[in-house]
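Listing S7. Sequence submitted for prediction.
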Amino acid sequence: MLRVTSFEAVHSLGKFLRDSGYDVAHLGNEFGLEHSLHAKLDNLEPLLYRTSGDTRLHSLARLFFVGVPVAIEICRSLIPEEILTTFLETGALKQIGAQIEPQCLFVPFANLLAVCDTTSHRKDNPDLVVGPSLATKLISRVTLHEPSEATLDIGTGSGILALEAASYSKRVVATDINCRAVEFATFGAALNGITNLTAVCGDAFAPVTGQRFSRIIANPPFFITPGKKHTYSDSPIELDGFCRQLAKEAPHYLEEGGVFQMLCEWAQVSGQPWQDRIRDWVAESSCDVLVLKGMQKKPADYAETRVNEAVLMHGGSAGHSFNERISYFQERGVESIVGGVIIMRKRAGSNWVSIISSDGLGEAAGYSVRERFDALDFVSSRSDAEMLNTKFLLSTDAVLEQRQALTQRGWQFISIQLVTSQGLLDRLNLDETVAKFIPLFDGSRKLIEIAESVSASLEIPTQEAEQKCLQLVRRLLQGNFAKPL
């Protein structure tokens, strides 16, 4: 059990760790430590080798990154007595015989330290608290890091997203049905010197009934499984019902203009395209909705992935078997499982829903999300006449990629794509004719002037050229390939 003996005492531990070089730069760049989950990655021996030096940082990395004991004599020689005593009093470390054993891990994430369980806690522990994962990085990248009066983190886990939110929010509330997670998140806040975060144990929105937030973040337990085995990963309701519930409830807790962002997975079932399933979730939300579609897997591929993850994370035959999962999907008519990010902004008036596929998320994805909202607002609120009288500028990160193949007629284009290289990575397929007109979007001419050039070049009626240009510019705006001036 982790205890915040006092905020100042726990904060002093965080300061000591940072002063000792316990951060992403030193652990990653100097030691080559990127993954602490050796039970998952079968990399305990390399981790022990990389942390076998006799410096303070090597010993701290063994304790809090790898999660293995260090002799008490070594700890006493490298860690100040007051700091070592505080580690022991808070329960982060425990003396067992002649050794000091870690009771938790401290995982660097950006400029923060996340608190999570050690490897020894993983087996048969339904309330395991895991550290930052690839999913954490994805939702962090796409999150709007903009000033917020009040931010809510649903299913906080180690609390890392809430800790991040504290830097741009006046007030942060983190909730989790797993009370151990709340304990870890509270300890993490003190460790990082964060005073504007409150972690509360409870199911989803239950602890904040009646409150409103300008930002809600959720990285919930979204795995689609036959039943709940692990609180941190398995959806507690049939199929994707828990994520559906969050999408339907979140708008009631948003202020006008507030934004809800959720990383999740959903099912495509027989007779219902997944796009229609998501539209049903948000139909009565009074929100503008941007869906960033990522992976899509067949049931067999998805089941195999999740089984392998469970075995590697927890050991043995943890979780549901492959056959259990396949039977579950077949009985419910699941044709595929889709993953992505759902972003909802509460706004009075006529709302829009935009569903796009993304090649990935760059470092500036959060800023790119804001640009997408602005572009979609522009498109939805402008008439054709207004669009035609607007100038548009191609984005600086837009790149035209062309591939050619040798044919009997010589080299011929087989694909032409406009690609964004930052933020939300996107691709727009073009034909050779349309590609010739892309340079005209240089901000110097109105769309109607571009349409006139298209009409003259292609020898088509002006009205037809205008409709083609309107269709093209709307797609350019929606993909962050261009912006209005």
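Caption to Listing S7: primary sequence and predicted structure tokens for the chain studied. The first helix runs from residue 7 to 19. The first strand starts at residue 70 and ends at 71.
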